[in-house]
Structures are given as C-alpha cells and as structure tokens.
C-alpha cells in the first residue's frame, strides 16, 4: 500500500499498521532513506503495549540494504535485530552493534498514530 | 594510542618525580614478552615495591605478533593490541612509547634516551629480534624499498601494503614459518606469491624431507610458487618488461617480481647489551643463566634477545616463561627457566602443519613410524624411543587433528599403546585418536602460552568456574595462541561431569535445553507454536539461534507451512522469502529439478524467465539450475511463471533435503545395473520438504562406478546386481567424510523403509545444525548402534518413525504454491511497503554475457567521488 507523505504537518506517514509484520521487520522508503521498521505487538517484554522501532536498513558490514530482513530477538534482555548476512546484532533502542560498538545504525523516531506508522519530525 | 602515559615533548626524563620509597625497575622493549613481564609483575603485586618504567621503540601499544597477518584480513592495530588499554595507567606503570633507549650506563645504573636519563635498580632487556636480511647485492634501499621489505612489525605491514598496491607479483625469501605467513599476506593482498628457500625443503627447522615435500605440494596447489634449493645472488631493477625486478639465483635461473620480502630468519636484538659490555654469544644473543640474569646481576634479559645454554627461542611461549621467571625473581619466588618445548602447530596458507619434540628422530636409538598419503599430500611421522615405549616427537602435514594427543603423549611421558602406528594412521571412524581427559596427569600442560596445567584447570573448577569464559579469565588458558581451545574444553567438561555438575548445553540464553530436549518437549506436549514453547519453557524474546531451530522442529513435527503467520518471524531470511539471500541482498531462485532430470520445455522456461528478469544462471554442483539476482518484489512473479510451467520449490533455502544426485543408470548407460534415475526421483519426491537439523543431500549411482558420487552424501545408494547398497552419514563440503556401508543388496521397499527410519531418527536426536556425519560421530556405539536401531528395531521406535515420516510425505505442499495463493503472505514480498520501486543501490554490470553485482569501484557513486575529489 502506498501512502502519500503528508505535507505541512509535523509528522510523515510511512505506512499502515497492517503493512507491518508481527515480531519481524519491513522496510519503508522515506525521502531516499531506507527505514527498517520492526513491530513488537506486545512490546519488548511481551507483556505491555505495541512498540515500533525504525533503524537504517543499510548493513554497514555487508554494504547491502537488508537490516529489515533480520531476525528480532534479545541479548540479555535488550531487544536486537540480527543482520541476515553476517549475523551481527544491532540494538533496536539505539542502533549500536553489539559485536563492534563503533558501528551504529541511525535510529528514527517512529510511533503509531491510530492505524498509521508515522515518523516524528 | 600513545595516550596512556604521554610525555610532553619538553619534559625530560630527569625531571620525572621518582618515588624514593620504591625501587626503580626499567623494562626495555614492549613486545609480547615485555608486555607479559609487566602483566606478571602487576599480577604478583610488584608495583607495591617497584616503580616501573617501560620503553617501547614502536609507537604502538604491545600487540599480538603471532597473529600479525590478520592485520591484512581486516583486524586493525587496536584489535591486535594485547591486554587492557589502561593496564599501565591503572597500575601506576609508566609506558614510554616511541622512545628509544640509546644506551645502558651500567656504572651509574642509568638508561640513556634522547629525552634524558633514568636511573634503575634492576633492568629487564626484552628487545626481541630483528629480521635478518642477507647481504645480497641489490638496488639502493632508499630508492627501492620494495626490493627489501621485511615482515615483523605493524609498520612493516603498512609498508608491504603500500608497495603491494599496483604490484602483480611478490617473492618471499625464506620458506620457514614466517616466510609462509608472509606469502599468505601477499596472496591476501591480491598478488601472485612465490617463496624462495635456500634449503632443499620448506620449513627446514620443523619438517623432515617428506614433510617438506607434502607441504610444498599442498602450497603449490594453492597457486603459490615454491622454489627450494635456491640461493639468491642479486636483485636487479628492470627498466622494461612486465615486472620491476629480476632475482638472479646461483644456479643461473632467475625470477622476476615487483617486490621482494625477506623472511630469512631472525637475529637477536642485542645491541644495547653488546654496547654496555654484557656477555654476548658467539652468534649473538645476551647470555643469561637459569634465572634469566645476564653477566650483570642487576640486568635480566628475556625473549628472543636472550641466549640460554646456547639457544635462542624464536617462539612466544618460551619468552613468556622467561617473563614469569623474571617477574618471580623480582617479587616472590624465582622459578628457574629450564628450557622450553618448541613443539608447534600452525595453519599456514590454510595447510595444517605440526611439529612436536624430536621431530627428526635425532635421539639415540629413536625409531620412526611414517604415514605417507601421496594422493592427498598428507604426511605424518611419529618418532618413538628405542624401547618403543614413549613418544619423542612427531611431524604432521595436512591434518593437525592428531596433534593434541601426540603432544600429550610426548610431554607427559605417557606409555604408548601396543600398536603405536595407530596414533598416526587414518581412522576409519571417529577421526583422530584422542586421549581421554582422565588419562592426563595433573601436570599435563594444557596451555603452554600461559603455563596452565590440567591441575590448574581442576583447581579453577573446584573454586567455582562454571563456564569456559570464566575459566579463561581465571586461568588465562587458551587466551594466547588459542591452539589449546579444543583440549581445554574437553578437560573442562570432563572435570564438571566427574564432579556431577551438568555441563551447560543450553541452546541459547532463552532456552536451557538442547535441541533434542526441545524436540521431545514439542512432541510430547504437542506444542504448536514458538510462543507456546517460550511461555512454557523459555524466557525473553528469543533470538536468531533459537527461533530458526524451533521453527525447524515445528516444521518437522507438524509440517506447518513456514509462511503461516505464527511461523514467519522465526525463519531466517532464506526461509522467510523461500529463496537464498546473496551478498548484495538479492535472492537466488532454485526450482526443483529432481534427480537432475529435466524436460526440454522446462529448460526453455528457465532460460526465458532468467532473460525476462535479467538473472544470472549457473548450473550447480547438485544438478540444478540456479537463477541469481532477483529482488524481493520480483520473487512472486518469477515463481508464478515457474509454477505455471510445472516447477515447484527446490528447498535450496531450507535446512531440508536438497537434491538427490543421480547418474544416468541402466536406461542409457551400458554399465548400469539398476535404474538410478527412477530411484533418485522416488527418493527426492518422498523426502522433499522434510525439515532437518542441517541440509541433507543424497545420491544414487546405477553401478559401482559411482558416477553420482553417492558416498559423499548423507545418504548414498549404489546399485548392485542383487539390489541396492545403502551408505549413510557421508559429507562433502569443508570437512569431507566418506559415507559408511549400512546395508547391502536390499530391495527398493526395504531401502526406503531404512531411509525413513534413519532420517527421522536423525531429525529427532541430532543437535542444531549438526550434519549427519557429525551426529554419527557423536553417537555412542557408533554404526553398530545405528544398525541396531534402524535394522533390528532395538529401541522399538521404528513404527513411530515410519508413521511420522509418512505424515510428512502425505502432507507435503509446495511452499511457493501455498504462498502465491494467499494475498496476505504475498504482502511480505515488497522491497518497500510504501513504494513499488526496487532497491536503487542494487547495481549490476555485465560479465561473460551475464549480469553480476557491481564491485565497489564499479559503482557510479564511487566514480562520482573520484571525479569530484
């Protein structure tokens, strides 16, 4: 589904909630940036409300745009995504790579607004 | 990197505040041995009594010279650095990097540097060695540095990298251990590499003639030129021609090259000792006694600059032992240095080489056993004492799996078995012979880098070390060269088990169970989903280890489509998108071509699809056709066309049955005795889609000529006049293993029944990602046990195993057909959820008439950068 970016408002609509995949990732394009969106319908503790994380889709280790296709999980309780190519783990909260903390994916501020996934300004 | 104890340029050493309550200790040299000495001093609390200064010539912190070549394969100076960066600062040790000690003033007990003088009470010289460059006539070094490179320091490596850019061929002078390392480095920099050795064989110090010959053949097979028995007489610059220099050899031959790297041995760096009048050996080296003391009682020397009983030790482990001796002498109790074991095992250019003790059999009365594998270029020699009771030494080329056991025999004087040759002969089953951890005495050395014995490991376990990581921190075992990792793990687990402690074999942090245990839980409790299993038996969110494993277990047990919503987040990307991800994020598509048999019409369709979507096509080793380069959003369209033409998924992405390779069988072949193609088709269609712990391959040959190479597969079937012979647990790939004969002359129905049972038993009991060959090695009782279970139904499982397999067979469904019929599932196949375009970063170029991913320098943005810069 294609949703036109809203103009003259504070937030950008990326996609609808039913474009997301529970406990996994999809990728949205925003002004030339590829954002990997990860949807945890019951949050990082599997108990509370839904959480969405948006990280760069570009994997610095392989140079390919694939982060959105990694497996979600946790390491010592910290939610992470594993790159599908060489399996490094990136923290969903701040994008830091656990194996090489100097590598860090940009984390984008996203949230649910009704049925829409929006990017904060 | 110099930031730990920087000395401002205007500060002289004379102005440093010295603590009058402490004695002054100076260590000259900050290599591996000097660094180890500091670590040992700190560990023994020496900083209470001593104020310590360390001087290093190099600008880098101490680094791991043993793994220097990894600098070319991605590690930077920081990754090679030894110890914690703040080790010196937090312990009050002053580290002076890039400051050369120019002289030792023994009369005044001072060292002299450009920054001034510093007094000492005791001095440790750990200046190591320098690479020997033979005096060969050649061009002026200042104008032709690339004709005189050496391989010793990080700066040397930077110089090699610099000169390798644009060069095509490099020659290493010296075919010893470091020379071969250096040749590998040149290779990894993309150069054609050659090795020139003066001696008639490679590694003349460690290997005998036959070992050297086997090594040579293996190295030549890797494309490295080997020239032994060659003395270089001159290096002459070439004004024209393909290469920059010509090396002339004494025998009149010559070799052209763009750079020359010398690795012709080391010489002790003893100049400081020489200049201040310490005793020096005839061929160099600062003479030391058993306490590492030089001819001046206030001065010690350790490592490769030191000469002990006429010997220089060119390995790191003896240097570490000397460092411990000195640290002891300066602090608590001196443990005298009593020589060192020069046994070593290495992987040079990917070839295993091992040398233990008296490798040449020079001990009086010594006798040798030799195993020579001319076909595989393997060589093993076992040197035993005259009475045949003890191992004196060994040489290994090609397979170091024999090393640990032989070393333990040699070091601990363990009595040889009745047939010593068995220790080096190839083992039909189960790999190299091992010495049980319980056979080792407490004094057995486990880690010779850090002097850790079996007794020390036991003590650490007694004191509460409960996992390998803690054990490594506690004992430092396996943190040096890493060669003892496997042995350490074996001893550790044996110690835990002998104390009745369960060895932690948890799948991952989320499940405290093995794959087998989880499999049992899923089946016994009828668990249908990851969520349910996690609720009942795990915690957290799961991870990329447990999710695919459990996804596979659920798929085998219940045969649920992997694309069902509850399973989709468990799969790795290949299973999620039912295609194999390649390096640029595109996928390859591989439809099933059962048994390698395909109709002309289908061949045409594959060609048409590949052309339409601009895919690279390649025929695989498993008799299939792989289409590379499809983007995510193209996969459904491609598969729709393939399925319409009668194809189905080939499961090339899954841990499942891949292919059943076949020869042409008796239909066309004049030798074939059975219809191998028909049998291959039957097997492939029966087991397609079965999820297994690792991928499974099969082969069916129509006669004993074995054209399908069935004995290299997990399941191999070979036709006989009377039926089929069944082979199991073979393996191609990285660690090939011949399959073993399981049953002979059986009919087709029996064959399939046995394979049903075998596969299901494997699926139920193997570990995560465990191949059948490794699983087979882990089975207590080996092949006989397997035969008892599968053929004689020893465990009474067979009805159940066959029923379960029949369920999988009956509920087979092409996963791609399933997904294409469900719009919800197809939603995942979008490159972007909010745009229909493809990934703009995927760029192909054409090579040999087909597309392939652009290399970095071929991409438009890199060209743009070049133009604008």
From TrEMBL, chain A:
One Pfam family, short name: Rieske_2
Annotated source species: Kushneria marisflavi
CDD domains linked: Rieske_NirD (cd03529)
Protein name, per record: Nitrite reductase (NAD(P)H) small subunit
GO biological process: nitrate assimilation
Swiss-Prot/TrEMBL keywords: Nitrate assimilation, Oxidoreductase
Gene3D superfamilies: Rieske [2Fe-2S] iron-sulphur domain
GO molecular function per UniProt: 2 iron, 2 sulfur cluster binding; nitrite reductase [NAD(P)H] activity
Keyword Methyltransferase belongs to the record: no
From TrEMBL, chain B:
Cofactor (UniProt): [2Fe-2S] cluster; FAD; siroheme; [4Fe-4S] cluster
UniProt family annotation: Belongs to the nitrite and sulfite reductase 4Fe-4S domain family.
Binding-site residues, siroheme: 707
Residues bound to [4Fe-4S] cluster: 663, 669, 703, 707
InterPro entries, per the entry: BFD-like_2Fe2S-bd_dom, BFD-like_2Fe2S-bd_dom_sf, FAD/NAD-bd_sf, FAD/NAD-binding_dom, FAD/NAD-linked_Rdtase_dimer_sf, NasD-like, NiRdtase/SiRdtase_haem-b_fer, Nit/Sulf_reduc_fer-like_dom_sf
Pathway of action: Nitrogen metabolism; nitrate reduction (assimilation)
Keyword Heme: yes
Protein name according to UniProt: Nitrite reductase (NAD(P)H)
Stretches assigned to coiled coil: none
């Amino acid at each position: 589904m294609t949703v036109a970016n809203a103009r003259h408002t504070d937030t950008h609509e990326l996609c609808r909630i039913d474009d997301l995949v529970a406990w996994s990732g999809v990728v949205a394009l925003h002004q030339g940036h590829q954002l990997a969106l990860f949807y945890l319908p019951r949050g990082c503790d599997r108990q509370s409300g839904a959480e969405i994380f948006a990280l760069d889709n570009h994997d610095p280790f392989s140079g390919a745009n694939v982060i959105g296709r990694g497996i979600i999980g946790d390491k010592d309780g910290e939610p992470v995504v594993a790159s599908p190519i060489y399996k490094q783990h990136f923290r969903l909260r701040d994008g830091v790579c656990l194996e090489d903390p100097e590598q860090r994916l940009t984390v984008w501020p996203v949230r649910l607004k009704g049925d829409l996934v929006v990017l904060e300004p | 990197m110099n930031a730990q104890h920087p000395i401002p340029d205007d500060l002289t050493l004379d102005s440093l505040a010295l603590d009058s309550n402490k004695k002054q200790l100076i260590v000259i040299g900050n290599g591996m041995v000097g660094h180890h000495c500091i670590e040992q001093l700190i560990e023994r609390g020496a900083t209470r009594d001593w104020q310590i200064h360390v001087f290093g010539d190099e600008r880098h912190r101490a680094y791991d010279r043993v793994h220097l070549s990894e600098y070319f394969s991605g590690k930077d100076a920081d990754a090679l650095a030894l110890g914690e960066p703040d080790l010196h600062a937090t312990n009050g040790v002053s580290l002076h990097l890039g400051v050369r000690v120019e002289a030792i003033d023994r009369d005044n007990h001072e060292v002299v540097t450009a920054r001034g003088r510093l007094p000492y009470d005791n001095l440790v010289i750990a200046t190591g060695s320098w690479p020997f460059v033979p005096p060969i006539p050649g061009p002026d070094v200042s104008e032709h540095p690339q004709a005189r490179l050496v391989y010793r320091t990080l700066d040397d490596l930077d110089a090699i990298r610099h000169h390798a850019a644009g060069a095509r061929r490099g020659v290493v002078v010296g075919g010893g251990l470091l020379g071969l390392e250096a040749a590998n480095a040149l290779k990894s920099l993309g150069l054609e590499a050659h090795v020139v050795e003066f001696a008639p064989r490679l590694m003349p110090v460690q290997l005998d003639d036959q070992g050297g010959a086997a090594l040579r053949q293996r190295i030549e097979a890797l494309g490295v030129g080997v020239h032994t028995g060659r003395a270089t007489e001159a290096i002459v610059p070439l004004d024209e021609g393909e290469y920059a220099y010509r090396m002339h050899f004494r025998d009149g031959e010559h070799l052209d090259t763009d750079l020359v790297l010398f690795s012709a041995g080391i010489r002790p760096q003893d100049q400081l000792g020489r200049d201040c009048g310490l005793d020096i050996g005839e061929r160099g080296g600062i003479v030391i006694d058993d306490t590492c003391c030089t001819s001046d009682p206030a001065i010690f020397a350790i490592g490769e600059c030191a000469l002990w009983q006429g010997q220089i030790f060119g390995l790191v482990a003896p240097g570490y032992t000397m460092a411990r001796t000195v640290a002891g002498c300066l602090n608590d109790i001196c443990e005298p240095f009593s020589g060192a074991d020069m046994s070593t095992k290495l992987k040079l250019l990917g070839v295993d080489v091992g040398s233990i003790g008296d490798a040449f059999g020079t001990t009086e009365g010594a006798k040798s056993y030799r195993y020579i594998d001319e076909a595989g270029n393997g060589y093993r020699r076992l040197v035993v004492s005259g009475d045949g009771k003890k191992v004196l030494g060994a040489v290994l080329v090609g397979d170091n799996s024999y090393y640990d056991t032989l070393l333990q025999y040699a070091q601990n004087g363990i009595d040889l078995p009745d047939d010593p040759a068995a220790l080096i002969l190839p083992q039909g089953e189960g790999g190299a012979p091992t010495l049980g951890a319980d056979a080792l005495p407490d004094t057995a050395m486990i880690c010779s880098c850090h002097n850790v014995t079996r007794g020390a490991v036991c003590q650490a376990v007694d004191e509460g070390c409960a996992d390998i990581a803690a054990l490594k921190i506690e004992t430092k075992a396996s943190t040096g060269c890493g060669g003892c990792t496997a042995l350490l793990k074996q001893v550790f687990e044996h110690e835990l088990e002998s104390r009745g402690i369960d060895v932690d074999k948890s799948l991952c942090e989320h499940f405290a169970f093995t794959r087998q245990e989880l499999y049992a839980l899923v089946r016994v409790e009828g668990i249908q989903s990851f969520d349910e299993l996690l609720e009942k038996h795990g915690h957290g969110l799961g991870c990329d280890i447990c999710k695919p494993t459990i996804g596979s277990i659920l798929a085998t047990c219940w045969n649920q489509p992997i694309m069902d919503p509850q399973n989709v987040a468990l799969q790795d990307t290949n299973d999620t998108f039912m295609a194999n991800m390649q390096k640029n994020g595109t996928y390859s598509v591989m439809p099933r071509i059962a048994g390698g048999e395909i109709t002309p019409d289908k061949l045409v369709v594959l060609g048409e699809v590949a052309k339409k979507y601009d895919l690279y096509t390649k025929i695989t080793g498993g008799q299939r056709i792989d289409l590379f380069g499809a983007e995510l959003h193209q996969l459904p369209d491609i598969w729709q066309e393939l399925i319409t033409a009668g194809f189905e998924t080939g499961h090339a992405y899954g841990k499942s049955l891949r292919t059943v390779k076949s020869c042409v069988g008796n239909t066309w072949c004049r030798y074939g005795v059975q219809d191998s193609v028909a049998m291959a088709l039957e097997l492939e269609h029966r087991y397609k889609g079965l999820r297994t712990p690792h991928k499974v391959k099969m082969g069916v040959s129509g006669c004993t000529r074995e054209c399908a190479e069935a004995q290299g597969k997990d399941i191999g079937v070979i036709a006989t006049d009377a039926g089929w012979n069944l082979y199991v647990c073979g393996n191609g790939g990285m660690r090939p293993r011949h399959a073993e004969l399981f049953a002979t002359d059986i009919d087709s129905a029996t064959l399939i029944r046995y394979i049903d049972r075998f596969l299901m038993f494997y699926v139920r009991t193997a570990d995560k990602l465990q191949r059948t060959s490794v699983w087979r090695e882990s089975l207590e009782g080996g092949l006989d046990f397997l035969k008892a279970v599968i053929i004689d139904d020893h465990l009474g499982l067979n009805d159940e195993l066959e029923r379960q397999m029949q369920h999988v067979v009956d509920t087979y469904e092409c996963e791609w057909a399933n997904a294409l019929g469900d719009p919800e599932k197809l939603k995942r196949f979008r490159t972007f959820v909010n745009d229909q375009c493809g990934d703009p970063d995927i760029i192909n170029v054409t090579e040999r008439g087909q597309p392939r991913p652009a290399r970095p320098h071929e991409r438009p943005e890199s060209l743009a950068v070049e133009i604008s810069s």
